Amino acid sequence: MPEPDSLEQKVIELIAQKKRLPPESVTLDSTFVELGIDSLDGMDLLFTFEETFKLSIPDEVAQQMKSVRQVTEALRAALAANPQPSTN
User: Could you read off the pLDDT of 7-64 as tens digits, one per residue?
Assistant: First the structure.
């Protein structure tokens, strides 16, 4: 199994922090249901992702995010559409 890339690692880390789960219990294939993420948690995570990655996720995209993999794919697409200047 390949190592998660930095975006995937950050998403896993943020979800684990919000849900107070050990990061190793969150995988790309974890669903929100499996992680106990309800709609309120989902909204909270959405705001966290938007703030962390400095982007806006459209409601229609957010409603389709039901797993860690779907979150990373949506964030990757949003980041590609809105490249951020490097802060390094």
Answer: 999 999 999 999 999 999 999 999 999 999 999 999 999 999 999 999 999 889 999 9
**∠50-56-58 over CA atoms, to 5°?**
120
Q: Residue by residue, what is the 3-state secondary structure of 3-36? A: CCCHHHHHHHHHHHHHHCCCHHHCCCCCEHHHHC
What pTM did the predictor assign? 0.84
Domains of the chain and CATH, by start = 6-81 (1.10.1200.10)
Question: How far lies 6's CA from each of 54, 62, 76, in Å?
Answer: 16, 21, 11
Contact of 22 with 16, CB cutoff 8 Å: yes
